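Structure (tokenized):
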């Protein structure tokens, strides 16, 4: 969960609540608090990005303490600023807003703003791959007419932290931020940019221009959010603007976005939900009246109106975590405290001791046997790189993750070979023979469906590793387990024809043994022969005598 650092005096200024009580209130809001090196470290639940800044924390705390209720839509005015959007295939969506009189009056508040931006990048922005935020000093923007479009990487601008113009290409290939994020939205020799007048003021999601940098003394902010998803961009903009609008004299400036989805932003409209008292009570096991629930929700910063048997709830635009009645019930539980709700002991019709499933017992026994045969167990992530899946020839069977955090971990492994060979590659410096095994899930496509099963992989790497060496290990393992099996010739995309056999239990293929093809080893980066066995433990449990 995100951990944020705040100056104690700033939180006191925002809330008027001493640290001890503040700690208790934040704990009710699912936050952990620690004091460290003159700061207060607050661990905030990832589903509450509206609390990633002091104003958001203060708003929630003052509500639960009963100091304030409900939510007031910020005052808005037309800023006169417009942003024209052209075709940006790699990052098509952009929204923007202005907040006047934010007044960055201290270095501490400037640090907090940057922290807020980065936590949004890490969470909702998926490390800037899904969305990125630009914060600019409005008074330093050259023109009120802006455009968002693709530009040449040979175009120049003055990057943040630099004093002289640089080519975008050089920023992407040399600067720390460019190296970290430069590949996200670049398309060949083109990259997204926001232009004001003749000046590039940012190349999202990488770096702003030094021209619009924030300093202590900055009063008015221009905010842009670029994204691969319009919904995400709008949500992030609402969170930022709603929090900055909590500043005492802040006013929100509307920006006209000239695009197919455009119009004036931000769109700080609440969402409505209607509930009955039983919608909450049936979830929590309580008997609160509708009026009691309405009072609690107002203190959780909702606007609530009772209409007969229903409560009409206005959900503030910054509460993107609320979508169903169960979310409303959770906020009621947070307000009263989970410890106040109590619990009922379930009625046990009969009691039975827990026990391992057949599969779990089998896994424990396999570990014991293979460790006794001098094999070392390894454990790897289930997500793997497309590169290694392609090298093994399993891409047609693989399941890809949408919007992965990292491109190198974007496919659910369709075979344990993908991870166990990676371990061998990273340990080629170890003395030979190298004998390892792995037990874990694999996910692959089969007959129009998705198969998820637990598998065992055993690998042997040596200068003269051969099929016969691992065959002896697998046969010994299966016979020790009491499994009746047969073998037959087989073909696998990553093992050698004529040096691969299929293992059958009850007439059904449950796995294979084979020598890995030299071209596969070369593609993965292995210089030694490898023989590999892989067995579906689910199938073996199902078919074993």
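Design, position by position:
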């Amino acid at each position: 969960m995100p951990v944020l650092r705040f100056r104690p005096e700033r939180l006191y200024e925002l809330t008027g609540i001493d640290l001890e009580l503040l700690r208790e209130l934040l704990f009710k809001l699912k936050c952990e608090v620690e004091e460290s090196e003159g700061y207060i470290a607050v661990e905030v639940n990832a589903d509450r990005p509206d609390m990633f800044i002091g104003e958001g924390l203060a708003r929630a705390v003052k509500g639960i303490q009963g100091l304030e209720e409900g939510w007031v839509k910020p005052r808005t005015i037309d800023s006169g600023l417009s942003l024209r959007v052209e075709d940006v295939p790699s990052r098509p969506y952009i929204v923007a807003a202005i907040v006047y009189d934010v007044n960055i009056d201290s270095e501490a508040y400037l640090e907090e703003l940057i922290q807020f931006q980065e936590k949004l990048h890490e969470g909702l922005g998926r490390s800037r791959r899904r969305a990125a935020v630009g914060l600019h000093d409005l008074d330093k923007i050259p023109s009120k007419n802006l455009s968002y479009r693709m530009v040449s990487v040979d175009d120049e601008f003055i990057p943040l932290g630099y004093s002289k113009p640089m080519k975008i290409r050089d920023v992407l290939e040399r600067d720390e931020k460019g190296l970290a994020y430069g590949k996200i939205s670049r398309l060949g020799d083109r990259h997204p940019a926001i232009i004001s007048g003749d000046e590039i003021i940012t190349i999202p999601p990488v770096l702003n221009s030094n021209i619009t940098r924030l300093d202590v003394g900055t009063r008015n902010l221009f905010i842009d959010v670029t994204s691969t998803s319009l919904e995400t961009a709008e949500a992030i903009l609402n969170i930022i603007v709603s929090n900055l609008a909590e500043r005492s004299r802040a006013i929100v400036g509307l920006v006209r976005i000239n695009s197919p989805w455009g119009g004036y932003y931000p769109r700080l409209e609440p969402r409505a939900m209607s509930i009955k008292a039983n919608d909450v009570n049936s979830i929590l096991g309580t008997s609160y009246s509708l009026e009691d629930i309405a009072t609690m929700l107002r203190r959780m910063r909702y606007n609530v109106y009772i209409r007969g048997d229903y409560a009409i709830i206005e959900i503030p635009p910054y509460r993107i975590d609320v979508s169903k009645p169960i979310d409303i019930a959770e906020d009621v539980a947070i307000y009263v405290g989970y410890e106040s709700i109590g619990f009922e002991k379930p009625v046990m019709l009969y009691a039975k001791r827990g026990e391992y499933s057949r599969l779990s017992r089998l896994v424990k026994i396999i570990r014991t046997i293979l460790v006794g045969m001098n094999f070392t167990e390894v454990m790897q992530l289930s997500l793997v790189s497309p590169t290694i899946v392609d090298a093994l020839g399993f891409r047609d069977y693989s399941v890809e993750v949408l919007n992965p955090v990292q491109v190198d971990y974007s496919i659910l492994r369709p075979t344990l070979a993908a991870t166990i060979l990676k371990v061998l590659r990273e340990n080629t410096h170890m003395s030979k023979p190298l004998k390892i095994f792995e037990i874990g899930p694999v996910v692959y496509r089969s007959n129009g469906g998705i198969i998820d099963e637990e598998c065992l992989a055993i690998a042997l790497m040596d200068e003269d590793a051969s099929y016969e060496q691992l065959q002896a290990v697998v046969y010994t393992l299966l016979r020790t387990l009491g499994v009746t099996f047969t073998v037959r010739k087989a073909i696998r995309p990553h093992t050698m024809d004529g040096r691969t056999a299929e293992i059958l239990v009850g007439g059904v293929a449950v796995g294979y043994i084979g020598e890995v093809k030299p071209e596969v080893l070369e593609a993965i980066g292995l210089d030694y022969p490898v023989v590999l066995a892989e067995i579906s433990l689910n199938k073996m449990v199902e078919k074993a005598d």
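Reviewer-requested clarification: The longest helix spans residues 107-122. The domain at 76-265 is CATH 3.50.40.10 (Phenylalanyl-tRNA Synthetase; Chain B, domain 3).
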